[in-house]
């Protein structure tokens, strides 16, 4: 049933391993150097905050656009540019929600000390995800739901959370592993993650690794 994933591993396994290493370095050292070639002409340094901003930017958008924005704005730009400057850059790149995402970046900047505090407290990735996405949590990042929080955690080295986005849903539906859900509730998200985890375990992969292969199968690229 999953021959396509195994074929993808044979074809782009080296790029997936490199990406996972970049994620691990980001979580361990607080910064990393991303190289997206040959899938995208982009390579740059990222830190924890710029990666959080990347995950804010990709929601209802695309990884490619998020990468272009992250490369152009740079680590210092996310920390220092004004709301108007961020909005202008995002607009120039064609982001549909430029002003809204710029506002969220500024808000995240103001509370990032709490995010760092949370990441240091030793909680499980599932607990971290809930605290980053729960509206009642003091650690809530505006714009983060379960998917965005999972995305951020995966990109800083946590391997045991799933990014249940449109690519993953399509993959699971095509494999007839989940029904054709019309809306995504927390219950459906977690049920889908459980199914995906069983698939990953059967293939001898982490959720983080499987996600990158599924993304490749759906887009032809190994991004993040």
Feature tags:
single chain; 224 residues; mainly alpha; Endonuclease III, domain 1; two-stranded antiparallel sheet; 66% helix; 4% strand; globular
What's the count of strands?
2
> What is the domain tally?
1
> Per CATH, which architecture?
Orthogonal Bundle
- Uncertain runs: none
Helix content: 55-70%
Question: What is the strand and helix layout of this fold?
Answer:
Blueprint: H1 3-29, E1 31-35, E2 43-47, H2 48-58, H3 63-80, H4 83-92, H5 98-119, H6 125-133, H7 146-155, H8 166-174, H9 186-203, H10 207-219
Antiparallel strand pairs: 1-2
Helix pairs in contact: 1-10, 2-3, 2-5, 2-7, 4-5, 6-7
Could you give a short description of this structure?
This protein has 224 residues and is mainly α. It has 10 helices and 2 strands.
Report on this structure.
- By secondary structure, the chain is mainly α.
- The chain has a single domain, classed as Hypothetical protein, domain 2 (Endonuclease III, domain 1), CATH 1.10.340.
- 66% of the residues lie in helices and 4% in strands.
- It has ten helices and two strands.
- Strands 1-2 form a two-stranded antiparallel ribbon.
- Helix 2 (48-58) packs across helix 3 and helix 2 (48-58) packs antiparallel against helix 7.
- The longest helix is centred in the N-terminal third of the chain and has 27 residues, at 3-29.
- The radius of gyration is 17 Å and the shape is globular.
- Catalyzes the excision of an oxidatively damaged form of guanine (7,8-dihydro-8-oxoguanine = 8-oxoG) from DNA. Also cleaves the DNA backbone at apurinic/apyrimidinic sites (AP sites).
- Residues 57-219 form the HhH-GPD domain.
- Pfam families: Ogg-HhH (PF22175).
